[in-house]
Amino acid sequence: MCRAHRARSAAEIGTILGISHITVNTHIANAKARLGVFKDTALVAAALRNGIIR
Asked: How does 9-41 read in b/e, with b if 16+ C-beta sit within 10 Å?
C-alpha cells in the first residue's frame, strides 16, 4: 500500500498538522455529524460522494 494512503492515527495526523490529537478527533467528529455518518469509513465514502475529497 502506498505510504500516502495508509491509515493514520489522530496522534500522527496531529503531529503532521501541528495540532493536538484532541483537535483532530474534534474535527473528525464534526465532519461525521455534518455528513450524518457514524463510522470513519462512512465518513470517507460520504466525502467522496459529495466531492469534498477525491
From this structure: ebeebbeeeeeeeeebeeeeeebbeeeebeeee
Helix (H, G, I), strand (E, B) or coil at 13: helix
* Cα gap 19→10, rounded to integer Å: 10
pLDDT digits (tens, 9 = 90+) for 9-50: 999 999 999 999 999 999 999 999 999 999 999 999 999 999
Q: How far, in Å, CA of 42 to CA of 30, rounded?
A: 14
**So what's the pLDDT on residue 5?**
73
